[in-house]
């Protein structure tokens, strides 16, 4: 059974920002929602859950770095996604007035395009945007649910084998011990599970805004092209020198002025959209790069093979073996890279990303120290 909003006959006026509206309203961060005390409390609760969840995953991952790398990465990789979602909803809340203005203007401009040809364009782009956003939300929800299902299956297998149940949360986090014991353990699991859904709703809403705006702006530009083609085609079909042509030329000038005004409006909206999305886009690139880098950190640190070979008793062997060991030392110093579209994860790349991430903090601390020294 296909949901109605995925069908081709779904009303166009309901398509506009359908998935971002649902996802962000679920956690209290949709810009057009009326601010009141219950909404602010609900948004603050979800923000606190997401914030503490990110902190708990970070502490858990750092704690297990020297114990079990796989367990540590099981916490650190979701932690980066959680931090990214935290940053996204922070920017959305901070720029909620700007988002609301852009949404209202896009709605006004798209509703004005009502001809049959433009309706077909709107149907095409609006449907694609809704389906892609729904796919992101659906896959994210499945992923978040899979973490909880994994915990249930693991504990069920332990129970059937008459072994002690492991009191841990779906997303590996560090909690105070009383929260990981009965009777508070089910509540802790529920909050951890909801933390995963908040993460999904945040990135589905923010990414849905980005994708939706791109498709809606494309719709407006396509409609503008159709108006320009129709306007110039009417003018070209008339004789050049008669009263009707003169009257038509005045109409064409009026239509062209309207087209220019609409084009300026679209350009202004795109500039506003770019200004409110720049922080989210930069943060997304940094955290995604860190996720890729931490996932293959053992590959990037493969130069340790050089140290292991050099620190061995290689000089006590024959000349032939010494040459082979020296060859291993030379070969192991080559940089290993993993080819991924648009970015090549390597130690220099990861280092540059880390510098970009911490440079504002370092600069702020340095400026503060210089100011104190000046005083």
From TrEMBL:
It is found in: Cell membrane. GO terms for molecular function: odorant binding; olfactory receptor activity. Its main location: membrane. It is a multi-pass membrane protein. It comes from the Eukaryota. GO terms for cellular component: plasma membrane. InterPro entries: 7tm6_olfct_rcpt. Coiled coil: none annotated. One of its GO terms (biological process) is signal transduction. The chain crosses the membrane at residues 35-55, 75-95, 125-149, 194-218, 342-362. Keywords: Cell membrane, Membrane, Olfaction, Receptor, Sensory transduction, Transducer, Transmembrane, Transmembrane helix. The keyword Cell membrane applies. Pfam families: 7tm_6. Belongs to the insect chemoreceptor superfamily. Heteromeric odorant receptor channel (TC 1.A.69) family. PANTHER family: ODORANT RECEPTOR, ODORANT RECEPTOR 10A-RELATED. This is Odorant receptor. It comes from Glossina brevipalpis.
